[in-house]
Design a protein that fits this description.
By secondary structure, the chain is mainly α.
């Protein structure tokens, strides 16, 4: 019920409170204790809700900064020609290009 407090412990606490505060004062103490607990619960709930709201607002703000609404569309990448680099014709040691019948650098 109250953690590790059982019924016998609660009865002992009630009897001690009755002796200390008296039968007239005990109902008033119970009422004020109940109001205090309710107020504490309400305050802690309000605090938790306000913290959650602030966290949610910060996350939305971070999301808006990370992905701006008017983000420019990136230009398409230029097409790169995949053909091999051109070899100057005056290089006599250049490898022959497939389909060529005369070696490079040779004159006819």
């Amino acid at each position: 019920m109250f953690g590790s407090l059982g019924m016998p412990e609660l009865v002992i606490i009630f009897v001690i409170a009755l002796i200390v505060f008296g039968p007239r004062k005990l109902p008033e103490l119970g009422k004020s204790l109940g109001k205090s607990l309710a107020e504490f619960k309400r305050a802690s709930t309000d605090l938790r809700n306000s913290l959650e709201d602030e966290i949610r607002l910060e996350e939305e703000k971070d999301r808006r900064v990370a992905t701006p609404a008017s983000a420019p569309v990136p230009a398409p990448a230029p097409v790169v020609d995949e053909s091999p680099a051109a070899v100057p014709d005056d290089d006599p040691y250049a490898a022959p290009v497939p389909g060529e019948t005369t070696p490079r650098g040779a004159t006819l």
